[in-house]
Amino acid sequence: MQSESRGSLITLASGVCLAAVLLLASHALPAAEADTQPVNIGSRLEPLIDDFLIDKLDGAKLRLNHPTPREIAITFDAPWEGNCSACSTVFRDGDKYRMYYRCLDFDPKTKKYTKDATAYAESTDGKVWTKPKLGLCDFKGAKANNLIWQDVESHNFTPFIDQNPNGAPDARYKAVGGGSRKTGMRILKSSDGIHWQRIQPNPAITDGAFDSQNLAFWWPNTQSYVAFFRTFSQGDYKGIRDISTATSKDFIHWGKTEGLTYGDAPHEHLYTNGIAPYDRAPHVLMGFPKRFWPDRKRADHPFGGVSEVVFMTSRDGQSFRRWQEAWIRPGLMKERWVNRNNITAYGMLVTKSDVVGMPDELSFYSLEGYYVGPCRLRRYTLRIDGFVSLNAPFAGGEMITKPVVFQGAKLIMNYSTSAAGSVRVEIQDPSGKPIEGFALADCPEIYGDSLAETVRWKGGDDVVKLAGKPVRLRFVLKDADLYSIRFQQ
Fold first, then answer.
1. pLDDT in tens, 166-183
2. Backbone angle region of 464, left / alpha / beta, with phi > 0 → left and psi within -120 to 50 → alpha
3. Which residues pair with 415 in a beta bridge?
4. CA distance 389 to 323
5. Is the distance from CB of 342 to CB of 336 less than 8 angstroms?
6. Beta strands 281-287; 276-278: pairing state
7. Cα angle for residues 35, 40, 41 (degrees, 5° grid)
């Protein structure tokens, strides 16, 4: 990111693993045969983020939902931080939340940047963050600061907790960093998340640009480490900021770089990627790229370009569905229209609601104040599983799924209706015929708002006799949203 500012801008867990194996196997079938195969969802949670389960829609549609802005979670105003502090990462680790971020300052008069450094903060609730004095790195002759790393990796130092069951204890935490083609993507390790060392002196991946927040994680779906990093498109779209991926079994030796695809979405500048498995449904990857429009300028600032956050998902790590509507708009705050604002911190947290009696929610952190300073992260919140919903208006609508095979005794919904709205569910055989006892007429109207509502029919809620058999699910909605479903005991 720093190097681009100086130049011209160019236009434009076990059940899950089994289900993933079954899913990958179905993808390997010839197209005609695969279309007839039921989707084995086991007892895993299925967020309604794409058309993976959908066979037919009538009067209903998938709707992108947006997070709610909250308080300023942290301000980067220490002398060693600066007005270009960014590339933040957040994750939960036991009873605490950890945050890592880049410290960098830009002097508009001299057009010079300070040297990159990596800082650390922590929190007990994801809302109030503290900066411990760690005594590890020198800043102007003193070590009373929260810095943990000062080298080329600091431009975009991005750590994660290694979920590989065979990972070494001294590398429970791993990180990637390096901000240019010259540095490549370098790899680091730590036993405690505070004291770090390079795994090897040379970069692990060199085929890329890397001048953005690159990242990696262990993905059980593929039983490998997966990295996502900055590249630039070639051919007809040469110069467009893009995202590529590579995989590794050992975090050291990486395979071929592959560019992501986005279906019918157009080629656009994607500045960051923010891709990670969704914790409640780790077979699904969710990404929160910053979409960049270099030719637009709204704020009175020397650097042009405007940004916003978009949302995308994938089930194979290479092909993504990317929503064209913004997930987070710049909004009414003028400085969020300044170049390079609205970067989303990598990671999402489950936090307590500010409203007494309300359930937990998801927290995200979006950057504001870039260049104008001080940089700060604003917390945003979203309903659990609430990224996308199957939505129907008051006039009503419905969805019928593809044939599915499940394991469990009850069908659970994350849903919301108005006071006048409702959801009803029918279970059909693969041909579309209602199964006796589970027809729409057997399902009383379900209304309310719940993260985990058990579907009931006149004969009760037990569906265990249908487990392991191909069935279709029909959801009939009226002024309602359906966010996710799962079968469980």
1. 999 999 999 999 999 999
2. alpha
3. 450, 482
4. 13
5. yes
6. antiparallel
7. 125
Residue 58: other Cβ atoms inside 10 A: 11
Name the helix (H) or strand (E) containing 72. Answer: strand 68-76
Other CB atoms within a 10 A radius of the CB of residue 108 amount to: 13
Distance CA 465, CA 463 (A): 6
Residue with tokens 């990093």: 229
What is residue 20's predicted lDDT score, i.e. its pLDDT?
Answer: 41
**CA–centroid distance for 112 within its chain:** 33
On the question of a cis peptide bond just before residue 374, with omega within 30 degrees of 0, the verdict is yes
**Sequence-separated (6 or more) residues with CB below 8 Å from residue 132:** 120, 121, 122, 146
pLDDT tens track for 79-115: 999 999 999 999 999 999 999 999 999 998 999 999 9
Q: With the CA atoms of 175, 177, 183 and 189 taken in that order, what torsion angle do they form, in degrees rounded to the nearest 10?
A: -20
Ordered domains of the chain (ranges, CATH): 2-9+66-382 (2.115.10.20), 38-63+388-488 (2.60.120.260)
Cα–Cα distance for residue pair 467/470, rounded to 1 Å: 8
Beta-ladder partners of 149: 118
Helix (H, G, I), strand (E, B) or coil at 3: helix
Measured at the CA of 115, the angle between CA 111 and CA 121, to 5 degrees, comes to 120
Listed in order, strand segments (DSSP E) in 345-396 are 349-351, 361-368, 375-382, 388-392
Cα distance between residue 233 and residue 247, in whole Å: 20
Q: Which of 201, 191, 105, 111 is nearest to 151 (CA)?
A: 201
Round to whole Å and give the CA distance between 31 and 264.
Answer: 20
Cβ within 8 Å of residue 364, ≥6 positions away: 67, 288, 344, 345, 348, 379, 380, 381, 382
Mapped onto helix, strand or coil, the DSSP state of residue 102 is strand
How many whole angstroms separate alpha carbon 323 and alpha carbon 312? 6
Q: Own/partner pairs for 466-470, CB < 8 Å, 24+ apart?
A: 466/406, 466/427, 466/435, 466/438, 467/406, 467/407, 467/408, 467/409, 468/405, 468/406, 468/407, 469/405, 470/38, 470/403, 470/404, 470/405, 470/429, 470/430
Whether the full predicted model's pTM is greater than 0.70, yes or no, is yes
